[in-house]
């Protein structure tokens, strides 16, 4: 399988601004942005000594991830909002799935991060999971709950005439963004992290395990 290089930051339309399109960090000049992209490529290389996960196991684990994401897509307009999914995952497995999309790594804490936002982010995740419905769960009465990256899934039922139902649809279709003070995660993006959790008992025994975290917002809508 051909190894793809992580996407580099496209040039800004403002010739005086050099901004990373993924993490939004601004650099004083083009050289700074180039160095940034060089470092990002290193983050996407599996650390020496870690085992390579077979492709067949990676595909099975992707299905597990979709299952747990769907568990956090509840029915009901009042249940929409900030969600978090946490699943045990090895560092090698995280790399096998999100290689070429890792945009942050801390050598001190061992934390990796990926950001996906907008239509481009949605398409990348569709490709990663091999499933366009990874972030959508369908319910009865033409309703659906989805991970908010774009508002393309917000549609109105043309045949609906019940005033109460129409009011509910209107409320659901209004993009009410949560206040920034409520969360460090932004509405309209999904942040995927990997980090190791450790536990120490009374006599000093230490055990640890890797976990993958998904941070996102959900919304419900009616389908035409």
Mean pLDDT: 84
Task: Describe the sheet with the most strands.
Answer: 7 strands, antiparallel
Number of domains: 2
β-strand number: 9
Cα Rg: 20 Å
Task: Work out the strand percent.
Answer: 25-35%
Helix content: 25-40%
Straight-line N-to-C gap = 40 Å
Q: Write the H/E string, N to C.
A: EEHHEHEEHEEHEE
Give the overall form: globular
Structure class? alpha+beta
* Poorly predicted residue ranges: 156-161
Helix segment tally: 5
Structure summarized in a few sentences:
The protein is α+β, with helices and mostly antiparallel strands.
For this entry, give a set of tags.
seven-stranded antiparallel β-sheet; single chain; two-stranded antiparallel sheet; alpha+beta; 9 strands; 224 residues; C2H2-type domain-containing protein
Task: Describe this structure as you would to a colleague.
The protein is an alpha+beta fold and 224 residues long. It folds into two domains: 43 residues, no CATH class; 169 residues, no CATH class. Helices cover 27% and strands 26% of the residues. The protein contains five helices and nine strands. The strands form two sheets. Strands 3, 4, 5, 6, 7, 8 and 9 form a seven-stranded antiparallel beta sheet that branches. A two-stranded antiparallel ribbon has the order 1-2. Strand 6 and strand 7 form a beta hairpin. The N and C termini lie far apart (40 Å).
């Amino acid at each position: 399988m051909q190894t793809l290089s992580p996407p580099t930051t496209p040039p800004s339309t403002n010739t005086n601004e050099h901004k990373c399109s993924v993490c939004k960090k601004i650099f004083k000049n083009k050289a700074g942005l180039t160095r940034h992209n060089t470092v990002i490529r290193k983050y996407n290389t599996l650390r020496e000594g870690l085992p390579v996960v077979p492709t067949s196991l990676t595909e099975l684990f992707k299905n597990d991830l979709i299952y747990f994401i769907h568990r956090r897509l509840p029915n009901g307009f009042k249940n929409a909002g900030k969600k978090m999914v946490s699943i045990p995952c090895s560092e090698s497995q995280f790399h096998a799935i999100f290689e070429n999309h890792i945009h942050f790594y801390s050598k001190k804490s061992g934390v990796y991060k990926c950001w996906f936002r907008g239509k481009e982010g949605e398409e990348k995740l569709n490709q990663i999971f091999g499933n366009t419905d990874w972030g959508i769960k369908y319910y009865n009465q033409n309703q659906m709950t989805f991970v908010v990256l774009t508002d393309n899934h917000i549609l109105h039922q043309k045949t609906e005439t019940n005033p109460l139902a129409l009011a509910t649809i209107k409320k659901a279709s209004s993009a009410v963004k949560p206040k920034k003070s409520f969360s460090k995660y932004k509405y309209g993006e999904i942040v995927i992290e990997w980090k190791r959790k450790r536990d120490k008992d009374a006599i000093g025994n230490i055990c640890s395990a890797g976990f993958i975290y998904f941070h996102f917002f959900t919304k419900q809508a009616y389908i035409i």
